[in-house]
Hints:
This protein is mainly alpha-helical. The chain has a domain at 5-105: Ybab, Chain: A (2-Layer Sandwich), CATH 3.30.1310.10. The protein has three helices and three strands. It has helices spanning 5-31, 69-97, 115-139; strands spanning 34-38, 44-49, 54-59. The mean pLDDT is 79.
Amino acid sequence: MKETFEQHIQQALSEFTQHRETLARVRGEMASLSATVRSKDRAVEVTVGAQGEVTALRFLGNKHQTMSGQKLAASVLDALMQARQEVLSRATALFGSVSGIGSGIVGADPEEFDLDRLLDAAGATARQDADQAAPAARRFGGSHG
């Protein structure tokens, strides 16, 4: 049995609602992403936020006091780059979890989306459903209109 136009619309609305909820959840998770990493020499700990911004910088123990400025800077940069990479990896995984959303409607190129064709197809389905229902309505004394 073919689905009616109304069933197609209900299914599309249901999928849209699910996708919207999923995207809202992912957006929230993206906004709250952070990573805390220690430098390889364990002298520095850096925390970065979702945009890679430094939100915390700690010097662990007193090791930094005996380091040259160049080594300390290298430790900070090392931890910073690792933390940013961690946030990027998590963001990539989150984006990957929603990468297929909407692909049933819009292909790889949004310019290819043809609303007129979609509406014509929906109208043809509705007309076809009505045409199939008409003989049954006449058999049972109903009217078609």
